[in-house]
Amino acid sequence: MARKAFYSFHYVPDNWRASQVRNIGVIEGNVSVTDHDWESITGGGDAAIQRWIDNQLSGKGCTIVLIGTNTAGRKWIDYEIKKSWDDRKGILGIHIHNLKDVNGNQSLKGSNPFTGFNIKGVNFANIVNTYDPPYFASTNVYNYIAENIASWVDEAIKIRANY
Fold this sequence. Notes:
Distance between the termini: 24 Å
Shape: globular
Radius of gyration: 15 Å
Number of domains: 1
Number of strands: 6
Strand order of the largest sheet: 1-2-3-6
CATH class: Alpha Beta
Largest sheet: 4 strands, parallel
Mean pLDDT: 92
CATH architecture: 3-Layer(aba) Sandwich
Order of helices and strands: EHHHEHEEEEH
CATH topology: Rossmann fold
Strand content: 5-15%
Structural class: alpha/beta
Number of helices: 5
């Protein structure tokens, strides 16, 4: 059975990095959005953004937060995390700072976006697994993610079932 996940990421700086992970092809993800489509969605205000997120989360078993430099604490990333948990979806994080962007640049490692949440008095960062590929070279980071993402999703779904 195909694994289905919602990819959550900070669009403007990390779209290129996110597309690399999405294109691995092991996990069926949410529909890609062009810059024009995203402008149209955001132009509809908060209600339109929330509706789009909710529709994209529908039918997915897991949310994969692709963690870039400034992912943590963003309004819509936080919404996606909370909504995913409330909808009983598995959640995991993957640091993507060492994947190259469209210009061939890497970025600084971002903070864990799960530290801002508590579940039954336990910090969410102690419940949700966050993976930081142990490589600097972008191709090695990509390969590491490709080799492990399916098992990470399976583990996230198992973890969520325990809460």
